[in-house]
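Give me the fold.
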Amino acid sequence: MITADLIIPALEATSKKQAFHAIAEATAAEFGGDPEVLFDALIDRERIGTTGIGNGVAIPHIKLPTVSRMYGVMARLEAPVDYDAIDNAPVDIIFMLLAPTDSKTTQHLKVLAHISRFLKDPDTCAAIRAKGCSENITCLMTEWAERQAASSAA
């Protein structure tokens, strides 16, 4: 769902809107989308309610008709931005989940719960903040997923 080319390890933005615009510009081509459509969908989702889950993390999640499968995009911001998060703290880690419009809600919610567990771990977030490149962040996510699979199998 997420590869190194969908990780932005040092995004420069001074606001939530600017972060959304930069994420849309940087990634829309990866899944054949229009950056403005992606940006508008992110803004529309945020109008429903904040996707800032606390501790400097936000998980905006949207469905688009132009997306053929689920995608995850992670951005680590150079400086935290005001996000209207549930804890009123600024955000510096954004994990955007994109799903096809026709995807099953249960699958979407399972992936969202998995991402939330990953990003609610303070050690994981500290490691993301410390890792400088997308390959290191990819390794961190892979190791976490393997530990989760191993603990589920035990």
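Residues 4-153 form a domain with the Mannitol-specific EII; Chain A fold (CATH 3.40.930.10).
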